[in-house]
Amino acid sequence: MRSIARSLGLGSAAMALTALTALAWPGAAGAAPSVPAAPAAPAAAPAATASLYAPSALVLTVTTGEDARRGTVLRAVTLVCAPTPGGTHPDPVGACAELREHDARLDALTAPAADTACTREWSPMTVTADGVWNGRHLRYAHTFANACGLRSTEGMLFDF
């Protein structure tokens, strides 16, 4: 009788772990459960799960003007790099690889490419990155003289 109770306990624990993993893993929210639903757990249970990865998620924007707080946001995307690349960025795998390669030093990614030829008009565009990188808060802003400067950068992080 004891072994039956132990088997039931392990089976319940496995089902609970599967349910928590499905809730915590990106993209798994739309997956259909393969086992009957267990009684509802307290609301704080999914938040208590620990991840093997430090969080890395950013909101990236392109804004008109010299000051992102007063300008008009033209485009904005999300970029998630841990545990797997994702978000609304058009190339999350490439953008996350660039961030890892430069250890989130974004000045290297906004530097002009060697073969850049832009006019000298002043029509500023500001890019921002705000969020968490490897568990630490990251806030970055860079102003380009014009849209050509933005399109002619070394990195692809702000290419959306």
Number of strands: 5
Largest sheet: 5 strands, antiparallel
Distance between the termini: 61 Å
Portion in strands: 15-25%
The secondary-structure class comes to: alpha+beta
Sum up the overall morphology in one term.
Answer: globular
Which residues sit in consecutive blocks of at least 5 with pLDDT less than 50? 1-38, 41-49
H/E order of the elements? HEEEHHEEH
Radius of gyration: 22 Å
Describe the structure.
It is built from four helices and five strands; from the N terminus they run H-E-E-E-H-H-E-E-H. A hairpin with a 3-residue loop joins strand 2 and strand 3 (about 85). It is of the alpha+beta class. It has a five-stranded antiparallel beta sheet. Mean pLDDT is about 75; it is low at about 1-40 and about 40-50.
